[in-house]
Amino acid sequence: MVRIAFLTGIVLAWTGGGFSQNKGRSEGMIRFSGGRFVVGTSSGASNEGPAFETVVKSFYLDEHPVTVKQFRKFVRATGYETEAEDFGNSGVFEVATARWVLCEGASWEFPLGPKAPKASDDHPVTQVSWNDAQEYCRWAGKRLPTEFEWEFAAASGKLKKNKYSWGDELVLNGKFMANVWQGRFPDSASVRDGFLLTSPVGYYGKTGAGLTDMGGNVWEWCQDTYALYPGNTMKQTVDPDYKVIRGGSFLCDEKVCHGYRVTARGTNSRESATFHMGFRTALDAR
User: How is the chain split into domains, by residue range?
Assistant: First the structure.
């Protein structure tokens, strides 16, 4: 059985480091020089505080989420079968009925089920669980980013705490900067950004650090088990099966799920796979 859950938010202030392009083993990744930064806010969602300082070591992060084409290469090389394929179904939101269903036969290659078209090679791979993402990382010799690394990168190393990875506005000069929901979720979708579901990676341009899709398109798995920040007095039992997801997705509506903010946090169970969750990989850097 696939379990589905979603939460929100955090804020970052950066005090050192930087980012750079690179070639070689980490080609296609951006290098971030680590530094101290402050996580948390007193004015966000209840899971966003209290603020605290931490340190992120230097790391590399994929320029864009892992694509269908990249994941296919992994599957062909290893014969790996995803958990959705093993279960025989996976999570799909039916726009017409405005409800989540377990779609029989949905998989990374057919995220809407076998009767729908195949996923496009240049779109982010979806219908992959946290466990599936871990297997891909092992094959690639990489790892999932921590949620602090993810947010550090989404902020592009800037002292100014922009709302989004690209700035403070979703629409600039009439152009949408991310693939998110337009209309009143879940009753209507105007699709003014051009895509009802996933979009090609990089379609909306790059952040100041050279990353794409750091808001909207698909939620992205992080390494961490979801937990409240130190000092937060909310009641929560930490469940190691629930992992952090970041970045929001094409289903996020500002009034319902503002998950494409730099600070937004979410969670889902490690075996869950849905048609709006993917991942990107990271590497340690010296």
Answer: 12-64+142-284
CA-based R_g, the chain, Å: 18
Residue type for position 19: F
pLDDT score at 103: 96
Domain 12-64+142-284 -> CATH class? alpha beta
d(CA 36, CA 137): 27
> How confident is the model over 95-101, as a mean pLDDT?
89
pLDDT of residue 14: 32
Question: Which residue's entry shows tokens 């899971």?
Answer: 47
Which residue's entry shows tokens 């992994």?
Answer: 74
The pair of structure tokens assigned to 75 is 């599957």
**pLDDT for the residue 158:** 66
What residues form DSSP beta bridges with 53?
38
Using the Cα atoms of residue 253, residue 66, residue 167 and residue 171 in order, give the sign of their dihedral. negative
β-strand 99-104 against 89-94: which pairing, if any? antiparallel
- CA–CA separation, 282 and 143 (whole Å): 5
CA distances from 284 to 61, 84, 202, 255, 281 (A): 9, 30, 24, 37, 11
Share of the chain above pLDDT 90, in %: 67
Q: Which residues contact 18 (CB under 8 A, 6 or more apart)?
A: 32, 33, 157
Residue 108 phi/psi, 5° resolution? -60, -30
